[in-house]
Amino acid sequence: MSEPAFRLSLLELLYHDYLSKKRLSAFVEQVSRAYTVGTLEGLAERGSRLTRRAAVLALGHLAEYSSNDVLGRALRDDDRGVRTFAEDALRLIWRRAGSKAQRKELDKIIRANTARRYHEALVRATAVIAEAPDLAEAWNQRAIAHFGLGAHAESIADCHQALELNPYHFGAAAGLGQCYLELGKPRLALESFRRALGLNPNLEGVRANVAALERTLGKK
Fold first, then answer.
1. What is the tens place of the pLDDT at every residue in 111-141?
2. Which of 11, 41, 3 is nearest to 28 (CA)?
3. What topology is assigned to 9-95 in CATH?
4. Which residues fall within 8 angstroms of residue 5, CB to CB, at 6 or more apart?
5. Secondary structure (H, E, C), the chain
6. What are phi and psi of 104, to 5 degrees?
């Protein structure tokens, strides 16, 4: 094998440096000076294993929601490391859609849901949806709030809307499964969990739900 075959790209060198020093901010800054988001998107789909890992990791910190399709496809990469970085990256860029004010409000909604302040999250999410009905994450967060308040039918409707706007939203698909379980509809739950797992094979909790439901219902 010739010498160039052993040569690492700049992106791979930066990634190796990140792995050794664990300085994410330095990695992101150096990558941003050398690569455009468009170039990183291409490398995320066509590069070597290490290049794909580095590109997807960088996209999570440099890209906007417009990279959703590329990162969504990366969820099904052959390499588990790429898939893991893709999941993290998607969670980040989903919060970057909309205007600056809408993003700030979305952060407040997420914090409210995390703290189980579901009524507050519901009110805030409803206001954002009225202003920007194309924000998939606002629908997903309102679905979480509805679920927390026991309004499963409303949560299902919001999950469907989130998936309509963002077909890679594995969280909304998993949320559908949880709602259908609560409503005593195991076949619909299984269908939803399979959909979530199809989008993101890394969801081990969802995989466990699928296995349990398949044992109960039979594999159909």
1. 999 999 999 999 999 999 999 999 999 999 9
2. 11
3. Leucine-rich Repeat Variant (1.25.10)
4. none
5. CCHHHHCCCHHHHHHHHHHHHCCHHHHHHHHHHHCCHHHHHHHHHHCCHHHHHHHHHHHHHHCCHHHHHHHHHHCCCCCHHHHHHHHHHHHHHHHHCCCHHHHHHHHHHHHHHHCCCHHHHHHHHHHHHHHCCCCHHHHHHHHHHHHHCCCHHHHHHHHHHHHHHCCCCHHHHHHHHHHHHHCCCHHHHHHHHHHHHHHCCCCHHHHHHHHHHHHHHCCC
6. -60, -40
CA distance 157 to 119: 17
Q: Which amino acid would we find at residue 147?
A: F
Chain position carrying tokens 């170039």: 39
What's the number of CA atoms in the CB half-sphere (13 Å) around residue 137? 21
State the helix-helix crossing angle for 10-21 and 24-34, rounded to 10 degrees.
Answer: 170
Spatial separation of the C-alpha atoms in residues 201 and 101, rounded to whole Å: 33
- Domain borders along the chain are 9-95, 97-151, 168-220
pTM across the whole model: 0.90
Give the amino acid at 28. V
pLDDT at 218 over 90: no
